Amino acid sequence: MKLTVANVARYVALLAAMAISFTTQRELALSHGVPVSVAFAVPLAIDAFMIWSVRTRRDIALSVSVAVAANVAGVLTVDPLSAVGTWVAAGLHAVFPFTVYRMHRAESATRPSESVADSAPDTGPDMTESAPDTAAETPDGPPTEEDIRAAVTVLESRHGRPLTGQIVAEHFGVSARTGRRYLDRIGYTTKADA
Q1: With b meaning 16 or more CB within 10 Å and e meaning fewer, what string describes 96-105?
Q2: How much is the pTM?
């Protein structure tokens, strides 16, 4: 990954949002009787669930809703409900889980069943959220050989050289070993392999 102003801004926003969410959710846990020694586990569980859901593309709405609810509840339990500032703070704290979601979504891997037409070079975070169009596009398993071949075609043109398991792995969001297995599945060999 290149160190650019955009990447630095992305990570600063991500860390700030996670720190604020962590503190708010930890205070919520403490105010409701969770022992100090394990109160950190509440925000850790909520944020880890959201990160997992974004990266696996499963239960995204649920995980973001849980994080927003925890942040809003953290504000509403410590401030009087009749104060306008309480509701402004609750709205502000609802923003941070969305920030964490967007920052992780922006850097998560492309969909395994992405078509060649959808594999254009990344020009920044995708601002749209779309559900898979067909059951074949759901990320419930490894990509098909057709998906791998389409990805290989795009990746070769993008990189201008024979592919490695690591390049394929980054495209599909899997380990380098699994990336090599995907290449083996379609019989892909480099000149060095031949």
Answers
A1: bbebbbbbbe
A2: 0.46
